[in-house]
Every structure is written in structure tokens, then in C-alpha cells.
Design a protein that fits this description.
The protein is an alpha/beta fold. It is about 35% helix and about 20% strand. The strands form 2 sheets. It has a 9-stranded mixed beta sheet, with helices on one face. It has a 4-stranded parallel beta sheet with strand order 1-2-3-4. β3 (about 95-100), α5 and β4 form a beta-alpha-beta unit. The protein binds nicotinamide-adenine-dinucleotide.
């Protein structure tokens, strides 16, 4: 792993998720932007001293010189460093799981997708929420036609953890609103695209057009901490996405509702083991993770019997399980988010930034051609 050092938000999730099924061992890392802190943390986590690197370039040189060098590298640094690190490892023939947003520009994302294709390596993007069993159940139910044609998708990812103006200079918060570190968008690129990825993952539809309203509610922020994005999918379905980091009282705040001609589905990440399904004219049913009658994909994403909570590291573990299967020719369904998903998100961010800068003008999102 590169990044994900001590105290980081996402590093511990990767450490748990990658090893949950025993498919990967954690063998090397350049975990922190401070070389000594990275080396020391790596050793405390059990890395051999010669594989607890101070810098990712050292790690690249060290690992590519070994016969047993890393098979997959997770890139969990702040956004601006994703591109050069992912590019260097892909070019060296190492599979990559890069955190979202994949890069800070569409051109960089397209470049990574090209390099992965040309090197015949996987470049996956960690839209980890798509690993939840009941999100995969939603996808299967929609594909089976249980909702009829989809009319409307409403997704939210609104929390309140950056609402304190006095905390704005905290280094863990500050980089997210600094264009040099985060790119052209903050909250939409950080959280909104998870909601958008889920919408496209479960419906199979492509986001074709959007209109965005961005606001920086905390004074002094250069990038948005709240956004409302209206969408039209290529199927004609309507999309509404609200994302915020100033919604005090909301915790994780990720939810997904899909409304079709003959039914509706409602799922919330804070109660991930229940999916609410209402057939047109019928009663609302609660579908339990691990219960009877679930789809093949949901059954394969499940680990613990019904009634015992799983949670986020288990969902991300499904991304790693899919990757292990894809890398080693296994039989799991290939549901991990790919470089094309990462590129589609970068195009949506680009369109949202342009729209928000032009009073919410509707903007087309190009189809991906590599
Ligand atoms: P963070 O600020 O909490 O931690 C970043 C870590 O990266 C720190 O340990 C820092 O020392 C290290 N780092 C910075 N530059 C580095 C470099 N050049 N080489 C090695 N290490 C370096 O950030 P975070 O919240 O953990 O976010 C990291 C990435 O993960 C971001 O891209 C973010 O968008 C993404 N993220 C994804 C999810 C998700 O659900 N998929 C959730 C949170 C964060």
C-alpha cells in the first residue's frame, strides 16, 4: 500500500479488507508522506524492515527488483498523488487498486485506463460501497426487471464532518478543499461520485447529462462543500444527487433509492443489512442480508449469517475478493469497479464543475472511447 498511514481515514479499511479472505498478504508499504513515520508504522504493522519503505519510488524500485515483489498495490494517498503513483506501478506490471477519485483530471484518468489496457494489468478504483451484498442485490433485482423500467434514482451522500469553520485548517480537512491537492471539485469528487457510481452500478445506466449547483458554505473554502446535481441517464431515467459535508447531525449519510414503473428500492449505508422493497400496489418488504432467496451476486458477497452485522471493511473486502479472482483466473463475478468506472466519474466531475461554473447549465457527459 502507498499512503494510508497511521491515523488516516481509509488506510485501516484497506489493511482489514485486503486480508479478510486470506487472498492477499500485506507485504510492503510506503505509508506516509513523512518517510520515517511511514517506515516506523509499516514495521509496527508487521512489515519486514526492508519492505517498510519511506517513499513510493523506493518501494517501486525495491519491489520490482524482487522475485516475490508485490502483485497488487493499493494507492491511498490524497488525490493529487494518485496518478503518478498508479501510472508508475502499472508501467512496472503491478496491478493497482487506486482510491477515488481516480485522478484529478479526465486526461490523467484516460491515460491510466490506456496504460492498464496496454500493460494487461488491472487498474481498479475503490468504489467500495458497491461491495455491499444488498447493493449487489439491488443490481440483480433491477437487472431481473423486478422494478420494471427505472424512472428515477435519488442518491445522497451528505455528512456534517467538515462543518466546523474552526477546524478548516486541520491538515486532514484542509487538503480536500485545496484545488492543488484535491482537484477542481471537493465534496462532489469526494462523496458525490460514490452516490453517482452506485446509481450507475445498480441500474446499469450511464450518466448522460447533468446540471450542478455547487456552494462553499464555510467561508474561505475555494472548493464546494455542498452540491446538488440533477442528471439524465442514457435510458431517460432521472437522477438527483445531493452531497454535503456541512450537514451537521448527519453521520455517513449515504443512501440510494431507485424507483421503477413497478416498484421501489431503498438502501442506506448506515443500515446496510436491510433493503426495503415496495412492489407497486403491494406492501413494503424488508430483505435481509444473508437471508433466503437472495441473488447469486448477493450470496457471493455475504460472509456472516443473517442477523450478525458485517459493515464497510467487509464491503471493501468484496472488491479485493473480486480482484483476487480476476487476477488469478477465479470464478467470482467480476463486479469490481474498473478504470472505466473511474474515468466515467472523472468525466462527471468535469461536467459538474463546468455546469456549476456556468449557473447550472445542462452539460453532456461524453461516452467513453479509449
Ligand atoms: P488522510 O489525509 O486521512 O490520509 C492520507 C495518508 O496518505 C496519510 O497517511 C499521509 O501521510 C499519506 N500520504 C500523503 N502523501 C503521500 C505520499 N506521497 N506517499 C505516501 N503516503 C502519502 O486521507 P484519507 O481520507 O485516508 O484519503 C486518502 C484517499 O482515499 C483519498 O483519495 C480519498 O478520496 C480516498 N478515500 C476513499 C474512501 C472510500 O470510501 N473509498 C474513503 C475515504 C477516503
Amino acid at each position: 500500500m502507498v499512503g494510508g498511514g497511521e491515523g488516516s481515514q481509509i488506510g485501516p479499511v484497506h489493511l482489514m479488507a485486503a486480508r479478510l479472505d486470506g487472498a492477499f498478504d500485506f507485504v510492503a508499504g510506503a505509508l506516509d508522506h513523512r518517510p520515517d513515520a511511514g517506515r516506523a508504522y509499516g514495521e509496527r504493522l508487521g512489515l519486514a524492515p526492508e519492505r517498510a519503505y519511506g517513499d513510493w519510488r523506493e518501494m517501486l524500485a525495491g519491489e520490482t527488483a524482487r522475485a516475490d515483489g508485490v502483485e497488487l498495490v493499493t494507492v491511498a494517498t490524497p488525490n493529487a498523488a494518485h496518478y503518478e503513483i498508479a501510472k508508475a506501478f502499472l508501467e512496472a506490471g503491478v496491478h493497482v487498486l487506486v482510491e477515488k477519485p481516480m485522478t484529478t483530471t479526465v486526461d490523467e484518468a484516460r491515460d491510466l485506463a490506456h496504460i492498464a489496457r496496454d500493460q494487461d494489468r488491472i487498474c481498479a478504483v475503490n468504489y467500495g460501497y458497491s461491495g455491499y451484498p444488498l447493493v449487489r442485490e439491488m443490481r440483480s433485482m433491477i437487472a431481473e426487471g423486478k422494478l420494471g423500467a427505472i424512472r428515477l434514482v435519488v442518491a445522497e451522500f451528505a455528512h456534517g464532518h467538515h462543518a466546523n469553520a474552526e477546524d478548516a485548517e486541520n491538515p486532514r480537512v484542509r487538503w480536500r478543499y485545496d484545488p492543488a491537492e484535491a482537484g477542481a471539485s471537493a465534496q462532489f469528487a469526494d462523496c458525490g461520485i460514490h452516490a453517482l457510481h452506485l446509481a450507475t452500478f445498480v441500474t446499469g445506466a450511464r450518466a448522460a447529462r447533468l446540471s450542478a449547483d455547487f456552494a462553499a458554505c464555510v467561508p474561505g473554502r475555494q472548493l464546494e462543500d455542498d452540491a446538488m446535481v440533477d442528471l439524465r441517464f442514457d435510458t431517460g431515467a432521472v437522477g438527483r444527487i445531493w452531497t454535503s459535508s456541512v450537514a451537521i447531525g448527519r453521520q455517513h449519510g449515504l443512501s440510494l433509492q431507485v424507483f421503477g414503473e413497478t416498484g421501489g428500492l431503498c438502501w442506506s449505508q448506515e443500515r446496510p443489512d436491510q433493503l426495503y422493497w415496495t412492489p407497486l400496489g403491494g406492501r413494503t418488504q424488508i430483505i435481509e442480508r444473508g437471508g433466503d432467496g437472495l441473488s447469486y451476486d448477493a450470496v457471493h458477497a455475504n460472509r456472516i449469517t443473517v442477523g450478525h452485522a458485517e459493515g464497510f471493511p467487509f464491503a471493501v473486502a468484496n472488491i479485493y475478493a473480486d480482484l483476487a479472482s480476476a487476477i488469478r483466473g477465479g470464478t467470482r463475478p467480476e463486479l469490481y469497479p474498473t478504470a472505466l468506472d473511474g474515468l466515467a466519474s472523472m468525466q462527471a466531475i468535469d461536467a459538474a464543475v463546468a455546469s456549476a461554473g456556468d449557473d447550472g447549465r445542462w452539460i453532456d457527459i461524453p461516452e467513453i472511447t479509449l
